[in-house]
Structures are given as structure tokens and as C-alpha cells.
Design goal:
By secondary structure, the chain is of the alpha/beta class. The protein contains 10 helices and 9 strands. Helix 3 crosses helix 5. The relative contact order is 0.14.
């Protein structure tokens, strides 16, 4: 089974534009870290950048070419459509979904998620359906069949933007959630706002080994707990909640029954 990681990347973040090109140290940007961490995976064969057709994202195409990465361009906000058409373009099955604002992705945890998928008959395996890992240690792998069904049936704005939320809601998919048994003192290891940079830069400056594993970061917190004072404790699902509000407007406009709202379970 060939595993290809598809990283969704754009510069047009409303909360922090061009955050992927922010430097975490003198040599590496956020996106550099994402790529470097993924390359330590023992399961991933290829990395594909999935960006938008927006002119401002030409910079991402230049980055992909410079780093010899495959790339695909699709819709900006309909990320589900972007993933589906990228998967079709590269004949992917399964698809490993990765986000670009998570510089400390743990390749060993990603490999656990992949291995669970490989050794089972699940449609969808992730470590974030019931969250026990921080946001930023996420990995999701799903079959092309599940992606195609989702692409055809999902219609809410949140389902189109967040790619797998429809899969998480629907019982028609066979799913598995990888759980972490350790207590984690933070909810996020991602760049959502400019205020996150100092915290992540400090982690980068304190850990020189490659790859940086979640265990290394937790050990650092134990040894130097004052670092946690830099942690920006914003709403960990701020972006998703914004999408849920857009769903309400969509349903009102289209005269549909809102039914039961779906929300991520945060259990760290």
C-alpha cells in the first residue's frame, strides 16, 4: 500500500495570513518544519502540496518546485473538493491528510495511524475524532471510496472546508480513533495567531534533535515548566465554530432543517 501525504496549504488565513512562512528559527519556517517532520515517517512515500488557485498562493507553488514537491491547485474554501480532485489527479488511495500549520507533527504517531489503517478494514482512521492529542499532532487517513462519497454528499460549509467532518458524523463509515493515554498540559501545538509564535519558537530553540517528537516536547515542559506561560490559550476550535455559524446561515438561506449540530469532543 503506497501512502501519500497531502498537505493543505494556503496563505490566505483570516486570523494569521502567510503564517506558514513565518520563521521558527533562523533556518526554518513553519512549513519547512512540517515537511522535515513528515520526511522522518517510515510509511510516507510521497508528499503533495495541495494549495489554491489564488494568485497570492503562487509563492506556495514556487516553494513546492524549489523543494521538489508535487503540487495541486484547487478551490480555496472548498478544501474537500481540493482533496478529492488532488486524489484523482495523483491516483491516490488511501489519502493521508495533513495540515500546514502544525510544525511539530510527530512522524511516529502518524505512522501509528497509518499502520492501523493498513492492518484493518476501516474507511477512516485518525487520532482526533475524540481528541486526546493536542491539535497539531493530527493525522487522518481515509480510503478514496470514503473521500468520494463524502465529496458527493457533504453540502454544509463546515463539511466542505474541514474535509473530514462529514466522515466523523456519519455512521456509514467504519472508523477508528487512535487514543493517547498520557496527560497533555496543552490543547494546541499549531500556529493559529501571531501570539503562538513565541511559544513555538521557544520549543524550537530548546530541542535540537530531529525529528522533534511529542515526547520530547512533554519532557521539555517537565524540565522547564515556565515555557507553558508562553502558551496562548485561545479557543482550540475557534475556526470550526466559525464554520458552524456559517452552516446556520447556509441552512436558513436554503430552507433546510438544521438538525443536530456536530462538535468536536475535546478531552485532553
Amino acid at each position: 500500500m503506497e501512502i501519500n501525504a497531502v498537505i493543505q496549504v494556503r496563505t490566505g488565513s483570516t486570523r494569521f495570513p502567510s503564517k506558514i512562512f513565518m520563521e521558527l528559527n533562523e533556518k526554518n519556517t513553519v512549513l519547512d518544519y512540517v515537511i522535515k517532520q513528515l520526511k522522518f515517517s517510515k510509511k510516507i512515500k510521497n508528499i503533495i502540496i495541495a494549495t489554491t488557485t489564488q494568485k497570492q498562493d503562487e509563492k506556495i507553488i514556487e516553494y513546492a518546485k524549489k523543494n521538489n514537491l508535487d503540487y495541486f491547485r484547487g478551490k480555496e474554501l472548498d478544501v474537500l473538493d481540493r482533496y478529492y480532485k488532488c486524489a484523482k489527479e495523483f491516483s491516490l488511495d488511501p489519502v493521508l491528510r495533513i495540515t500546514s500549520d502544525a510544525p511539530f507533527l510527530d512522524p511516529t504517531i502518524i505512522d501509528e495511524v497509518i499502520e492501523k489503517y493498513e492492518k484493518s478494514n476501516y474507511d477512516f482512521v485518525s487520532n482526533n475524532m475524540i481528541r486526546t492529542y493536542p491539535i497539531g499532532i493530527d493525522a487522518e487517513i481515509f480510503s478514496m471510496e470514503a473521500l468520494e462519497k463524502t465529496w458527493k454528499e457533504a453540502d454544509l460549509p463546515s463539511e466542505r472546508e474541514h474535509v473530514t467532518s462529514y466522515m466523523k458524523k456519519k455512521d456509514v463509515f467504519k472508523k477508528f480513533n487512535l487514543k493517547n493515554n498520557s496527560k497533555i498540559p496543552i490543547y494546541r501545538l499549531t500556529v493559529d495567531r501571531k501570539e503562538d509564535l513565541e511559544f513555538l519558537r521557544t520549543i524550537s530553540s530548546k530541542i535540537s534533535k530531529q525529528p522533534i517528537l511529542l515526547k520530547d516536547i512533554l519532557d521539555l515542559f517537565s524540565k522547564e515548566p515556565d515555557i507553558l506561560k508562553l502558551y496562548n490559550n485561545i479557543d482550540p476550535v475557534e475556526g470550526y465554530n466559525k464554520s458552524l455559524n456559517e452552516d446556520k446561515e447556509f441552512l436558513k438561506k436554503n430552507g433546510k432543517n438544521t438538525g443536530k449540530n456536530f462538535s468536536f469532543k475535546e478531552t485532553i
